[in-house]
Write a structure and sequence with these properties.
Pfam families: Stn1. Helix content is 33%, strand content 24%. With 306 residues, it is of the alpha+beta class.
Length: 306
């Protein structure tokens, strides 16, 4: 695994804007041929637009403008005209070639920070990012989880659901996941059926209920717990390692093939259904398959057990 793959690459806006969009066969962006999934930039907030579940900002660093999205709407991380240091995940955008889904936004008070970032980013771009990196098989870090994220991970891996009390904002999302994993529940559910059948506390009127459910479904899709299986029917399925990831792994390892763990993870998250699934969820599923002797470790590669 290239260490740059999961690091926040220090770049300029012009570097990101010249990166071609991922092809249908590969979901990742490439900088000098090396896969990058995250980036950091320093620039001025040139515009901001509030949406229902997010705020969209335009960052101008003097070399170009890049859109970044903050999903929190209650406390905006910055204001128009602020100099900010933005860390985020690279995602395709309908309006531009790439956008950042912000994971951290820091308002910078030192005006020299932007020039320092320019110098460092240009140096890295010319002398580091264009170098071929040695392959390093790394253990994926497990980030700190919210109660909802932990519950979704357990559902994905087929583990018993945790019983921690969720935050009030996450209660409906937790109720939806709990409803979908109960015994006898169908693998897929229409949105309207979920609105009608999932218990909500406290009760609410029809219009408020519909809006709350739409927001909860959007959150679960973003977390990698739900996949929109059929847009015309508004049909969703709960993502599980056993039904979504394992068939992909078996197909790749058929006929005695071997793959590194990181390559299997990348293969799974490259599939349309699993593109939002966190990498460490898939990694945990692979580790569980090894522990259950469904996969065998052979010379740092994985193969199907005989």
């Amino acid at each position: 695994m290239d260490p740059l793959n999961w690091s926040y690459a220090k770049v300029l806006a012009c570097h990101l804007l010249q990166i071609p969009a991922p092809t249908s066969d590969e979901m990742f962006y490439r900088l000098h041929g090396r896969v990058i999934t995250r980036a950091q930039l320093v620039g001025v907030v040139a515009s901001m637009q509030h949406k229902t579940d997010r705020t969209e900002y335009l960052l101008d660093d003097g070399t170009g403008e890049v859109l970044f999205v903050a999903w929190q709407t209650d406390a905006p991380p910055c204001q128009l005209g602020d100099l900010v240091h933005v860390f985020g995940r690279l995602k395709p955008s309908w309006e531009s070639s790439v956008e950042l889904h912000a994971t951290k936004v820091v308002v910078v008070s030192d005006p020299n920070a932007e020039m320092l970032h320019w110098a460092q980013a240009q140096l890295l771009y010319q002398h580091v990012y264009n170098q071929r990196a040695p392959y390093v098989e790394a253990t994926l870090p497990t980030p700190r989880e919210t109660t909802l994220e932990a519950l979704c991970r357990h559902a994905f891996l087929g583990l018993p659901l945790p019983v921690d009390t969720p935050d009030n904002d996450d209660a409906l999302s937790v109720a939806i996941v709990t409803h979908l994993v109960q015994d006898g529940a169908p693998p897929s559910i229409r949105f309207r059926d979920a609105v009608a059948n999932v218990d909500v506390v406290p009760p609410m009127d029809a219009s408020a209920r519909l809006g709350r459910f739409r927001k909860a479904f959007a959150i679960l899709r973003r977390l990698g717990a739900l996949y929109l299986q059929d847009a015309d029917q508004d049909m969703y399925c709960l993502l599980r390692f056993e039904t979504m990831a394992w068939p992909i792994i078996v197909q790749r390892l058929a006929h005695g093939q071997r793959q590194r763990k990181s390559d299997l993870i990348a293969l799974v998250v490259a599939s349309p259904a699993c593109r939002q699934v966190p990498l460490h969820w898939v990694g945990d599923g692979v580790d569980a398959a090894v522990a259950a002797q469904r996969l065998a470790l052979v010379d740092d590669h994985l193969a199907l057990s005989a």
